[in-house]
Amino acid sequence: MGLEGRAAIVTGGTGVLGRAVVRRYLEAGAHVATAVRDRAKGEALREELGELVGTPNDARLLLVDADPADRAAMDAAVEEVLRRWGRLDALANLAGGYDRGTPWDLDAMERQWAANVRTAVTATAACLRPMRARAYGRIVSVGSVGAERGGAESAGYAMSKSAIVRWTESLAAALKDEGITANVVLPSIIDHPVNRERMPKADPTKWVRPEELAAAILFLTSPEASGVTGAAIPVVGRV
Ligand SMILES: NC(=O)c1ccc[n+]([C@@H]2O[C@H](COP(=O)([O-])OP(=O)(O)OC[C@H]3O[C@@H](n4cnc5c(N)ncnc54)[C@H](OP(=O)(O)O)[C@@H]3O)[C@@H](O)[C@H]2O)c1
How big is the CA angle at 169 (ends 166 and 170), to the nearest 5 degrees? Predict the structure, then answer.
């Protein structure tokens, strides 16, 4: 996909989807920095990736201690990427999650906003500086097909994941003449250990596999995807 030698930042790299995306980038020959809140989880990821992470003198994976919602920390992460690899080509905004919450539970809604929106907007704002300077960038975020319609107990999730879709459209429109694309993938249920535990009677072979989503994310952050921007792309497996 033309990702050899390119540099990507991944948020949520310690999660199930994030681990698959980081692996695919490294397999494609890209350099990856992932912003981690919990160093131990970052080190476990490094361990799991084995030789793909490179050597101490030629590190292909960089773990940066940074909460993606913290602008100063993300600015420092971007600087570190530029110092090491001299470029920043792609950002995969994968941090986020699902929390139950009624439509009158403002605290729950704010937590979902912080997890699903603040992380993506903050990481993007930090990455845009070098991307705009170079007139090249690829940004992908994660929404959810499940959030296209609100549910009685998923107010914050539906609100925040819908917001990511509208925000992606705005971002794409704002950057359309600057060589930077912005898209959002919409998974259904990801084949994730937590989903298997929560839904023991479901058939997980129908769910989208993390590797399948990773393939879509890699394409959207590749040079070849220059013609796709402002799109919300369902990646739903076999449901
Ligand atoms: N699982 C699904 O069925 C499903 C379906 C549709 C969409 N999605 C979306 O896909 C993305 C990846 O999810 P996943 O399935 O890989 O989940 P996961 O295994 O729980 O991983 C979530 C990742 O996001 C990070 N994260 C969570 N809340 C955060 C916050 N408030 N601030 C900063 N980082 C935070 C976690 O960091 P820590 O390791 O530090 O906690 C972790 O790296 C999420 O945006 C999720 O909403 C998932």
Answer: 90
Q: How many degrees, rounded to 5, is the angle at CA 24 between CA 126 and CA 5?
A: 65
Residue closest by Cα to atom 31 of ligand 1: 115
Class of domain 7-235: alpha beta
Q: What is the pLDDT of residue 132?
A: 98
Query: Which of 10, 94, 122 has the most ligand 1 atoms within 8 A of CB, as the residue to mutate?
Result: 94
Query: What is the reported pTM?
Result: 0.98
CA of 57 to the centre of ligand 1 (A): 31
Burial 54-81 (b: 16+ CB within 10 A, else e): eeeeebbbbbbebbbbbbebbbbbbeeb
d(CA 42, CA 30): 18
- Ligand 1 mutation target, pool 37, 107, 208, most atoms within 8 A of CB: 37
Please tell me what DSSP assigns to residue 115: I
Delimit the domains of the chain by residue range.
7-235
Among 192, 165, 178, 94, residue whose Cα is nearest residue 136: 178
Specify the amino acid at residue 130: P
pLDDT above 90 (res 146): no
